[in-house]
Amino acid sequence: MGREVSESCIDSVMIEMVSSYCDRFYQNKPELAARRIESIGYQVGHQLSERYTMERPRFTDHLDAIKFICKDFWSEVFKKQIDNLKTNHRGTFVLQDNRFRWLSHISIEPSPDGPGLPSDAAGDLLENKTAQATQAASMHLYFPCGIIRGALTNLGIPCAVSADISNLPACSFVVRIKA
């Protein structure tokens, strides 16, 4: 039987890591917090891909490596496969996860707090809460972006990875292969 870590422990570590880097270490510098969180993810992804590919031959092309990330790697890390993979066949891949586990605890309130607010103020408050939730979610995505980038770099594919949040907890990871 392989070693496993409780999902609630991973969730707690993720929340605390993002909170620590955003609210304490780099409180006024979110771009530095994001870079640090992504670099931790990079190290984790690099080590995990080393572990998961130990018994496999090297991949022959980019598409095989991306398929490995979508099927086997994602299954090991998130206990499910990627829901959709798209490519333009020119070095850009979009990995769609319709229920990304690490975003499932982030939500947007459907209505603003405070009864009796004028409709303009209520709309502004809701818009502000939506922006805050989107920013919080994006900070939580630097770690998995780093994991993907680290795993692919270890497989010999230098790339840049970004995330796009369309509808929480759905998420798309955009992988751009560097030439």
From TrEMBL:
Chain coiled-coil ranges: none
Gene3D superfamilies reported in the protein's UniProt record: Trafficking protein particle complex subunit 3
Gene Ontology biological-process annotations: endoplasmic reticulum to Golgi vesicle-mediated transport
InterPro entries referenced in this protein's UniProt entry, alphabetically: NO_sig/Golgi_transp_ligand-bd, TRAPP_component, TRAPPC6/Trs33
Entry superkingdom: Eukaryota
CC terms in the record's Gene Ontology section: cis-Golgi network; trans-Golgi network; TRAPP complex
Family: Belongs to the TRAPP small subunits family. BET3 subfamily.
PANTHER family xref list: GEO08327P1, TRAFFICKING PROTEIN PARTICLE COMPLEX SUBUNIT 6B
Protein's name according to its UniProt entry: Trafficking protein particle complex subunit 6B
